Amino acid sequence: MLRFLTAGESHGRALVVIVEGLPSGLPLVAEEVGGELARRRLGFGRGPRMRFEADEVTLVGGVRHGRTLGSPVAIEIANTEWPKWAEEMSPGPGRPSRVLTQPRPGHADLAGMQKYAFDDARDVLERASARETAARVAAGACAKALLAKLGMAVLSHVVQIGDARLSAGASGWPRPGPEDLERVDASPVRCFDPCAEAAMVAEVKAAAKEGDSLGGVAEVLAYGVPVGLGSHVHWDRRLDGLMAQAVMSIQAVKAVELGEGVRVAGKRGSEAHDAIRWDAGTGTYVRDTARAGGVEGGISTGSLVVVRAYMKPLATLNRPILSTVDVVTKQEAKSFKERTDVTSVPAMGVVAETMVALVLASEALRKFGGDSLGELVRNHGAYLASLRG
Ligand SMILES: Cc1cc2nc3c(=O)[nH]c(=O)nc-3n(C[C@H](O)[C@H](O)[C@H](O)COP(=O)(O)O)c2cc1C
């Protein structure tokens, strides 16, 4: 099993993440983690912070001479803007120079202030901010490195921004494979289809002009997932449930879909499932469709894993339109602006990819075990060999 814990505030000194459960001998360097973090900053429609917020990665523990030691891996992502925030975010005793008393609708501000008895919204928003996902992406880099050793690759692409979406042909919409990831990342909206990409860019420009925001959908694809991750035997061991929880935990994600989950709800059973056939050439069972998203009964089937994350339009707008209340005066006010994107769907896709990778890595470790990478790879290989009929 893989566990990870993040800490740190959006404008604090640094974010930190500890990843526990990685085997020894896994090659890992800070540049690999930095590369994943750079992917999280991608996307047309992101605010100015993304341009000057370089991520400074330090491997603090658990790695020696480019290989994991089997001990917890600790990663620090320094805030390059810290000198500007050192006073406002100081952990030392004192008071902030400016208190935010007008909680922003659609954020954790008001519920967090009431729950934790704060009079300053910054005490909540600093941690609720999606900057925290940088720490998750760093953990995800470790998970992806592990999955690659087991022949698995997880990637994402954007399938909808606002009203602009990929149109499905007879065989569904175009899906990138692991070899297409660079092409997806090179797209300004991380879209694999050039026609839909142009429509998405136009949609973002139109919303930006009006000071408005957009949501959308990113699709996560996991290739090479073997049959047998997750289990039908207990509710909290189901792979679909684990992936849904992990992806739903991403800030502003409001719905998660496995395979054609939403569409098949309106279909007949005869058209909603993935027929099984025996492929004598490879000696495996195959399914030619991915309606179930690669999971049946909470167990991976060996087919392509497909998870879609639906993101709400961002709540902070570039014009003062949403009403709120000042918690001191109780007077109506317009929601203030804490730096905001027009849309973060392309970046959210990278985070969704991360969360799916972390779940798959954890379940792979649970199934195959092993303290060293060599042992894990041997166990995985022996299991695959046992499946060949
Ligand atoms: C990668 C990423 C970037 C985000 N950037 C913004 C942003 O610029 N402005 C904003 O209002 N919300 C942004 N959000 C969403 C908020 O963090 C989120 O809506 C807020 O914390 C409240 O959580 P909830 O929407 O899950 O209830 C972003 C989310 C993600 C995943």
Note down, in words, how this protein is organized.
The protein has 389 residues and is of the alpha+beta class. It has a single domain (3-92, 101-387), classed as Chorismate synthase AroC (Chorismate synthase, AroC fold). The protein contains twelve helices and 18 strands. The protein has helices at residues 30-40, 49-52, 82-85, 109-116, 122-128, 133-149, 181-186, 194-209, 239-248, 261-264, 345-368, 373-387; strands at residues 3-7, 14-20, 24-27, 55-61, 63-64, 67-69, 73-79, 153-161, 164-165, 216-223, 253-258, 276-279, 284-287, 295-296, 299-300, 305-311, 323-325, 332-334. A five-stranded antiparallel β-sheet has the order 9-8-10-16-11. Strands 1-2-7-4 form a four-stranded antiparallel β-sheet, covered by helices on one side. A hairpin with a 6-residue loop joins β1 and β2 (14-20). The chain is globular, with a radius of gyration of 22 Å. The two termini are 29 Å apart. The structure holds flavin mononucleotide (FMN). Flavin mononucleotide binds next to α11. The site of flavin mononucleotide has 20 residues, from α11.
